[in-house]
Amino acid sequence: MMITVVILSLLISLLCPWYFIAVFAAMLASFKKFTPKELIRLSVAIFLSHVVAAFLLDGLAHGLVSQRIGGLLSLPFGALLYVMAALPPLVLFFSTYWVVRSSRNFVKRRA
Amino acid sequence: MRKVFYFVFPAGIFVAVVFCLSQKLGPLPSLGPFLSFNDGVFSQYKKNISFGKKSLSFELKNLEHPVEVFLDSNLIPHIFAGSKKDLYRAQGYVTAQFRLWQMDMTTRAAGGQLSEVLGAKAQKIDELFIKMGLREASKRALDEMMEDPATQLALTAYVDGVNQYISSLSYKDWPVEYKVVQSRPQLFEPIRVAQLLKIMSFNLSGRSYDLALTEIVQKLGWNRSVELFPDFFGHLDNGQNLDDIFMQDQPLTKNISKSIKTSNAGLAAYPGYSSAFANFPDFLLPFQNDGSNSWALSAEKSSTGHVIMSNDTHLGLKIPAVWMENHLVVENSDSENLDVYGASFPGTPGVILGFNQNFSWGATNGTIDVLDWYEIEFRDEKSTDYMLDGRFVRAEVWNEELKIYGQKNAKLIPMVWTEFGPLLHREGKLGLTLRWTSHEPSNELSAFLQLDEAKSVTQAREILKNFKNPIQNFTLADAQRIAIFTPGLIPKRAVGQGRVVENGRSSKNNWSGYLSASQSPFLENPSQGFVHSANQRPEGSDFPSYLGWDFEEPFRGLRIREVLSAHQKISPQDVMKMQNESLNELAVLFFQVVDRNLVVHELSNDYKARFDGIVNWKFLDLADSVSSTQFYTWFKQIENKIWGKEFSFQKRPYFPKKAFTLKTMEEMRKKSSIDFYKMLASAYVAAMDQLEKDVPQPEGHKWGNYQPTRIPHITQFPGLGAGDFHPDGSRYSLNSNKGNHGGAWRLVVEMSNPPKAWSQIPGSTDGDPLSPNYTKGIEQWTRGEFRTVGLKTRSELIEEKSQTWRFNRRSNP
Predict the structure, then answer these.
(1) How sure is the predictor about B266, in pLDDT bands with cuts at 50, 70 and 90?
(2) How far is B4 from chain A (nearest CA, A)?
(3) Which member of B31, B36, B720 has the closest CB to residue A72?
(4) pLDDT by residue (tens digit) across B661-720?
């Protein structure tokens, strides 16, 4: 399951606008419940897979994305850009999943 | 409550995350879309893949015939079209594809429209340019352009091509700079082209030392200021030593009291100007030692028997490069034929400098003074009526809008336009205006478009008679003739007029019109077999109007003249070598005044050892030369010793010209040789101490490390520039390398049939910072390597396996 989710998240990042990862997380949250520990592990896996993906995509662009954009953002070293690039999917996935699950629990408990 | 918290807390975090990722936070772009793999910076690989295809096809509206573009191995576009309309449309599209951000920014500057994209940080510069009248001047220029059918055709087709490219863009295709500032590329208006020509006009003729010199006059008096800042001699034809550099009859010292001094006598010591000068930005001052080299050799002087034309345009180095090389061809048409190769400013149609089958042309900046400042007296502190010839007259007053990105309401900039040009600075009742030839309506684009098709020197001269601003020394060459022509609006004025701020209370102090085009300096086929310019004064003191005093130092001009005179026959390869030559002509003249062995006598043993390098120095500013660095720092100290005290009132050091310093040194030596050498020795000691303090590592004393070449991004975005590079050369050698300024485009053309040509450019056609081609060519340029270029035929380009772009007509919906 975890591998599938990670692969899907990568495909979404590659093919869809940046916020689609939130849509994906929301859909996932609506039918699959992860324990907090699982959610953290899954989010970390998504984060790491995006770091690797950023590295590979930069390789396809001759390493110029990390070099130039790293310089533009005044990063101490270019590779930090891979981490930066993986942060939005991480926080978006995690926070969306969390908020959708909490809202489900909230609605359920109120009902 | 706990339940609510468990819902609201993550919801709050979610909203905050989405907000932060979708908004521009300070200087950071919105990171969500910016770092997206799908359409952000990491999607660059998609662009590279599509760009790397051997052939691409595009659809363009309004095309009459299909257009083919071949990109050769240097990525130079060779555009083959069936009509001029199609050609300029395709040129606009192709240029935008490579250089959209650069085009957008450079064409906005003169219109005061940078803030629309860059926000409040560009507000000051926009305000200044609007107040200087650049926006108004661009409007006037556009009116002129639109009145000429040929210019109108080129302009509208080119802008349409640019706009068709812009319209085709989605976020993923935006140049990365737009993603950074998070602003959508906006469609171009034809006025942008006029604005680009005006910003070049500002760079080349819109800066002056008038305010600095006014301050010097205030402190040191008229006579001393004339002594310290004399007129330079003209063609450098009378010899090659220091005495010949300056005008022998010194018309200024003779005549100044009769004209200018009298008319300005009533001014109350220019009360506002010191503060005005102190507050104006540095870029209003000319770049010292700015300039270009150009020369042409007759067929007799050329070792190949063909005329040779050489041009090296020295401009501020930027990435993407200021120039873009193009080859433009119109074929298969009875009435329109064009085959021209050369450099264009991204943002203007056609070729600005280059060559065709029959004719080649280059340029150096004219540096004739075409901008004068005036003091205006208003009726009171708020009025815009100003005193002229004893009565108050009304200035033209209106507001210009300044739009700023992120701000709802446009700022209104009040414009006050007088007989003496627009008001730039006001202190109570007194104001400073500037009169500048660039405010006159003009159509320089027409001249360039016609030069692209010119067949001879004679025809080119006729075309250039309508050229107004910025004044250029055009080097012209066809198969038989060579010439140098300096067309442009030259104000008619008295000797010395315009050196300092003039009295704007009297119309007598205004320019009395312009010289006619036939009076512009022109020299054709001289007996010496060559013409040349390194921005020196184009005429002597007998010229019918005062041309100003602030011409380029004579060093490069002297050297060109020396080399061309010394050789009977010169080949194109010799010319290329000359362009790369690093001989420091200032040092050559310096050591005609200074005996190195006598300096050694005055030094202690410790410094003697260091001075050995200077003793054996061949005056070459090579990248690994420590002596070059020593000489520069030493000369700076000498200047401080000679002028520092007298000029201590200055906030920005502005000393007399180096050539004048040399002349003064010669006089000092003649007066007392002992004191002179003592002064030189103490300056050397101070220079070496300072050098060691500033640069403790000995490796840093090598010239290439001391003055590395750094090429900044066109809008100074960090990380998008290139450097450090360590080329040879300096501001006093023909290879004019000044760190961030230098040979922005070099061309050598042999006018054989077909013409042979070689060029050098610091950068690539591709202005995309994430493209592997972005910095291509810079290393070659630093090594002084020329590329063979030319009027290649379609079949030659196909044989070379050039990348092909085909533009087909798209029917309008």
Answers:
(1) very low
(2) 7
(3) B720
(4) 998 999 999 999 999 999 999 999 999 999 999 999 999 999 999 999 999 999 999 999
Q: Which residue has the higher pLDDT, B221 or B478?
A: B478
Task: Name the CA radius of gyration of chain B, rounded.
Answer: 28
Chain A contact for B17 (CB, 8 A cutoff): yes
User: In Å, how far is A43's CA from the nearest CA of chain B?
Assistant: 15
- Using the beta-carbon criterion (under 8 Å), do A54 and B37 form an inter-chain contact? yes
In the block, tokens 């737009």 appear at B178
Chain A residue closest in CA terms to B3: A106
What's the pTM value of the predicted model, to 2 decimals?
A: 0.93
Cα–Cα distance, B55 to B53 (Å, whole number): 5
Residue among B186, B40, B177, B155 at smallest CA distance from B99: B177
Q: Given the DSSP bridges, would you call strands B359-365 and B353-356 parallel, antiparallel or unpaired?
A: antiparallel
- The Cα B193–Cα B190 span in angstroms is 6
| Cα B508 from Cα A61, distance rounded (Å) | 65
Residue type, B37: F
Phi then psi for residue B733, to 5 deg, are -115, 165
The tens digit of pLDDT for each residue in A60-98 reads 999 999 999 999 999 999 999 999 999 999 999 999 998
Number of CB pairs, chain A paired with chain B, less than 8 A apart: 121
Q: Could you tell me which of B185, B130, B134 has the C-alpha nearest to residue B401? A: B130
Burial of B495 (0-12, 13-18, 19+ CB in 10 A): middle
User: Per the CB < 8 Å rule, is B719 touching A74?
Assistant: yes
pLDDT at res. B333 = 61
